[in-house]
Amino acid sequence: MARFVRAFGLHQPDRTPCGTPVPVSEAHALGELAREGELRQVELVHRLRLEKSTTSRIVAQLVRRGWAERAAAPGDGRGVLLRLTAEGRLAAERLAEARRVRFDTALERVPTGEREAILHALAVLTKAVGE
């Protein structure tokens, strides 16, 4: 497992495994916001499985980059609603495309007859780690 983590670049927190110079945590936050359109910050905390303070720092960085904006959550005076800016949507699209290319390239290197087993094993491992 450690060899896979290193080979895939998962041990480099300042860049995505596809080589984009964006911290992995920011890339995940961008992906969640792109998928949903907008999220309450507390929901982003749960989805990223990070502490509130860590998520706040990630959001602050996304805002500084001009990729996200904050607004008051409707009906909740203390809640924060997050959404991507046009620049943020473009950044999310670029990251998603780079990720797709990286994953497709890796999967293409797996013999055709073994691909289904690999994908199944990843799903099982993901579930086991998430429990």
TrEMBL record:
Gene3D superfamilies membership: Winged helix-like DNA-binding domain superfamily/Winged helix DNA-binding domain
Gene Ontology biological process terms, A to Z: response to stress
GO MF terms held by the record: DNA-binding transcription factor activity
Which residue range or ranges hold the HTH marR-type domain? 1-127
Indicate what this protein is called per its UniProt record: HTH marR-type domain-containing protein
Name its species. Answer: Planobispora takensis
